[in-house]
Design brief:
Length: about 325
């Protein structure tokens, strides 16, 4: 039995459960082993939505178990950015809820184009966590500088959208993992609260805590021009829709999301949802142009000028200390 875990809340977006349902459908469709999906949710997920998960599991002969989590106050956790929501913090509690040797945590914006048994069979040695390096950091000097300020080594930074967790061992060897993670989120102004905290915890415990896995186990579609690859370029991977969400903009990579969503709803409803992506033609072109680093730098400069004015932008670039003081609100 393979044990998977998804964590989500439907409080921020009345349709967010559908993305989790689509992600799970892609896993069931491509995995031959028996799977038990553990869903950590709060009371914003009503019974009707829960029944949809049970119906999906029954269709594929798999299992689904729900765990009701106590809501985490966003402000009490250092004002977690609303774009992420506090349900992302539920992953800190996986080892306290799921009694299994290994648990694969999966973000809700992921589509499986491989058998997830491959990930479970990957040899992580004695490490408590298995994860994939965040490829989005390769050319992001500003983000690397931010991580260095937080005492997180950028070269060892992983994306927490996929985590292979030794659940029972974490419970035995690191019983205060949840408390440590939440306290770190509360006390530090992280840009990516749960992900930054997990990376800092892993790095503080030492390199033996983490085993790096192949990039295809967490393929960041939003990085570079990956939204526009050929079909063969996506096969055998877990597609992680960072930045470019398929339910917001149409791209070749996003078609795999819509393929599995179409199997959960009628064709009419699927195409109706796709055509509400306004203005999808312009967003498609804009995303395509942004595939090059030079174009991204140009757009960032235009944005800086429009946001703060040409003179302010020049002063900030000439006087780094002035820019730092502004960020601190001084």
């Amino acid at each position: 039995m393979l044990h998977l875990c998804f964590c989500f809340s439907d409080a921020r977006d009345a349709g967010y459960y559908i993305h989790t349902l689509v992600a799970l459908a892609s896993v069931f469709a491509n995995t031959s082993s028996s799977v038990c999906a553990h869903l950590l949710v709060d009371d914003s997920v009503p019974s009707g939505q829960r029944e949809a998960f049970h119906a999906l599991a029954e269709r594929y002969g798999q299992q689904v178990i729900f765990y009701d989590m106590e809501k985490i106050d966003r402000l009490a956790c250092g004002n977690v950015p609303e774009a992420y929501g506090t349900a992302s913090l539920y992953r800190f509690f996986i080892h306290t809820r799921i009694d299994a040797p290994k648990v694969l945590y999966i973000d809700c914006d992921i589509i499986a184009l491989l058998d997830v048994a491959e990930i479970f069979h990957w040899d992580t040695g004695e490490a408590l966590f298995g994860a994939v390096l965040d490829s989005g950091l390769v050319n992001d000097k500003q983000r690397a500088a931010y991580l260095a300020q937080k005492h997180i080594v950028p070269g060892c930074y992983v994306n927490s959208g996929i985590l292979l967790m030794q659940s029972r061992r974490i419970r035995e060897e690191f019983p205060d993992f949840a408390e440590t993670g939440l306290e770190m989120v509360r006390s530090q102004r992280f840009r990516y609260p749960d992900q930054d905290a997990i990376n800092k915890i892993i790095q503080q415990r030492g390199p033996a805590t983490l085993s790096l896995m192949p990039e295809r186990f967490n393929y960041l579609v939003g990085h570079s021009d990956r939204s526009y690859q050929s079909h063969a370029g996506y096969m055998g991977k877990l597609l992680h829709y960072t930045r470019t969400k398929p339910w917001k903009v149409l791209t070749p990579a996003g078609l795999y999301y819509w393929k599995h969503r179409a199997q959960l709803t009628s064709i009419e409803e699927t195409f109706s949802s796709m055509f509400t992506l306004e203005p999808h033609e312009h967003e498609y072109l804009f995303t395509y142009l942004l595939r090059t680093e030079a174009m991204r730098r140009w757009v960032n400069r235009v944005y800086d000028v429009s946001r703060q004015g040409f003179a302010e932008m020049i002063l900030d670039r000439l006087l780094p200390e002035r820019r730092k003081r502004k960020k601190r609100g001084l």
